[in-house]
């Protein structure tokens, strides 16, 4: 992965951040040729790089505008409810959500980021070095076991947001539970935790492997991705994920894209909301 020359970076950044004619056609025509190129921005005064070939950054007008309809309610919730907290970024990719939490949250203490994709991990490490002196980064998938598994992803892409773990002990990707990661590395966590969970099918397993971490915290606020196609692929439901979290402690669930409308737990989630992908806020006092 390499950064673009300064002038080209300026032009591509302008194209990403504006509604220019033919934007999507240009992206489609260039994404394969420039899949190993990094477009560089500044977030809160720090350099931050993203892969050329991820449409989500073009669609959202650059990383600083990344799904703000869901990120801003999340960061506002963290500001309103946590006086000091550590942010655990599971499925961190290049660290965009970590960068936005760092930008918008006044009480962020430390960032702990996990990303199993070897193509993008070095980009994540450099981005974290730029945005925060207090961080830890691990090239690992998170699940309910410790060992190794097969990580299925498109290695030719700068960043494959659909990469997912296949629980196969013959794989080469390190897999950990959150509890054992904390114990193994002697990480002393803040009393409050914020956890972003974007682990492409390992959400239920992640909660199962994070019982001690979630129990010990004074307060936990999670941002949990619900992806209907992933749920269907893995024969799970939104309720399965909610119930796994609620085995540990009581959660109140809110839908930020619906003005933080509460989830009614006695009803199926997708009977209450249109079938689409969501990031759900979960608050455990």
Order of helices and strands: EHHEEHHEHEHEEEEEHEHHEHHEEHE
Biggest β-sheet: count, sense, barrel? 8 strands, mixed
* CATH superfamily caption of the largest domain: Vaccinia Virus protein VP39
CATH topology of the largest domain: Rossmann fold
Instruction: Please state the CA-atom Rg, rounded to the nearest Å.
Output: 18 Å
CATH class of the largest domain: Alpha Beta
What is the straight-line distance between the termini?
Answer: 42 Å
Q: Roughly what fraction of the amino acids lie in strands?
A: 25-35%
Mean pLDDT: 92
Shape: globular
Structural class: alpha/beta
Helix coverage percent: 25-40%
Please tell me the total number of domains.
2
**Secondary structure tally, helices:** 12
Work out the number of β strands. 15
For the record, the CATH architecture of the largest domain stands as: 3-Layer(aba) Sandwich
Main sheet: strand order: 6-5-4-11-12-15-13-14
Kindly list the characteristics that best describe this protein.
8-stranded mixed β-sheet, Rossmann fold, 26% strand, 285 residues, 4-stranded mixed β-sheet, 12 helices, alpha/beta, 15 strands
Structure description:
With 285 residues, this protein is an alpha/beta fold. The chain has helices at 6-17, 23-30, 55-59, 68-81, 96-104, 118-131, 178-184, 203-208, 211-216, 228-233, 238-246, 269-272; strands at 2-3, 37-43, 46-51, 85-90, 108-114, 135-138, 141-142, 147-152, 164-166, 173-176, 192-197, 219-226, 252-255, 261-262, 278-284. It has an eight-stranded mixed β-sheet with strand order 6-5-4-11-12-15-13-14. Strands 7-10-8-9 form a four-stranded mixed β-sheet. The longest helix has 14 residues, at 68-81. It is globular, with a radius of gyration of 18 Å. The model has no long low-confidence stretch (mean pLDDT 92).
